[in-house]
Amino acid sequence: MIKLLIVDDEQVERQGMQAILERSFPHLRIQQAKNGKMAIELATEFTPDLILMDIKMPGMTGLEAVEKISSDFPAIKFIMVTAYDTFQYMKAAIKLGVKDYILKPSKASEIVSTIGKVIEQIITERDHYRKSQLQQEVWEKAQVLVETDVVTQFLFDHVHEVHVDMLINMLEIPSSDELFVMVLHLPEGAEVYYSLIKEKVRQKKSGWVGALYGRQLPIIVFRQYEFSYRSQASAWARDFLSLPATTESTDWFIGIGGVYKSLDDIRTSYQEALMTTIDMNARKDYHFYEDISFQPDRLEENIANHKELVDNIRLGKWDRVYTQVMNQLTYFEKGRTAIVHAQQRILELLWIASRMMSESGIETVTPLYMVQPLDYRQLRGETDQLIQKMKQSYEQHITLLESDTFHKLKQYIIDHSQEDISLDTLAQKVQLSPIYISKMFKEKQGVNYIEFLTECRMEKAKSLLADAEKSIKEITFEVGYHDPNYFSKVFKKVTYISPKEYRKTMLGQQV
């Protein structure tokens, strides 16, 4: 509903104007003011969209009232109503942004026509504002998904049809060339905390939040140079720990990785942040990776060992996992490393392996030593048992899943190849992690899921090209692409000939 205010010192004029408007614009909500001062008061209380303002009034002129109201409410539109058709008045009114004017006396049709044009403008502006607000909301939601996807690709090696560089262009990147990762170990019911944390990071405008994996939430933080790295990270950690929902829980822990100068190196900071959470006795606290003593290995060797371990587990090569862990134990023993430090380092490796399995949808208990080993012989025995339990969980999971999961995934892609299918979409269909699905395709099909999806689309395109009535553009959309040029490029890459050449060959064979 549009609200209109009639301002005139003559009651007869006000009543006559309102009668004309109510007949022609029954949707209007109308109020009246008998002078400029009252008009200013009603502008605040009534908040009209349009004001019909008489110029000559006792006390305060209409132009003075327009100037005052416009300064406080710039969105309000004005039409001057006057018996003085002079250039001086019109020039002053135009300067104040008045939309039009009505001369006294005027025909009812002229009044309706003039006011109708301004009302249409108001309605158009409202529609435009609603659309832009909706577009803004859609864009903000899209940015949230893009942000999560970017973090996931950087930290978890996800495969995606849209390259991470393209996604980053959709995000606001803070002006910083240094960054680090924080991993929040959340309490049970972690979903309750996710939105609170997301909003907190959004307010800071210098971080990206990843996907929630179980109770682990990774955050990429961009350095703010007005603070030191430790003071910035500590402030962030304290902010998270002081969120309203966190005060009732004691099961919080935050690991903070080191600072790196490139997004390409951010996975190292992520691994460091994960390692700090190995201290199971820490509660509602935060630790820096640099504060943890890792002897005797250097950081680079430590990270490389973890990556090799994770890769072996992903490939199901448990003999290599066993050899790597036991070789590490032998190295500690020969170096006369204290048994307690050796146990801590081995537990790191097993914990990283356990986390990787959990992220891949494999249920396994967090590895813990039930006793404090007295010597390396006992430590080897305890370690062997923990590895065997993890291996057993892995093999049971594979046995249950691989019988028909892969067939279901392939069939779904074949049936829906024309749609935009992401790893997350496939993951939801079979209740597995995107990481595990990507691994399954590479191992069982020899290609990643995008390559298989492309093959399906090309097979469908070949079939459609047999129909001479269908244009290349139509076929492009039917097989799931949006750009005929891109479709032709992909088709030629797969078949070594263009769609047009393929069609000519097919039609020639039919003849």
UniProtKB/TrEMBL annotation:
SMART domains: HTH_ARAC, REC. The modification 4-aspartylphosphate is found at D54. InterPro entries: CdaR_GGDEF, CheY-like_superfamily, Homeodomain-like_sf, HTH_AraC, Sig_transdc_resp-reg_receiver, Tscrpt_reg_AraC-type_HTH. Residues 407-505 form the HTH araC/xylS-type domain. Residues 3-119 form the Response regulatory domain. The keyword Phosphoprotein applies. SUPFAM superfamilies: CheY-like (SSF52172), Homeodomain-like (SSF46689). It comes from the Bacteria. Keywords: DNA-binding, Phosphoprotein, Transcription, Transcription regulation. Pfam families: GGDEF_2, HTH_18, Response_reg. This is Two-component system response regulator YesN. It comes from Caldalkalibacillus horti. The lineage of its organism: Bacteria, Bacillati, Bacillota, Bacilli, Bacillales.
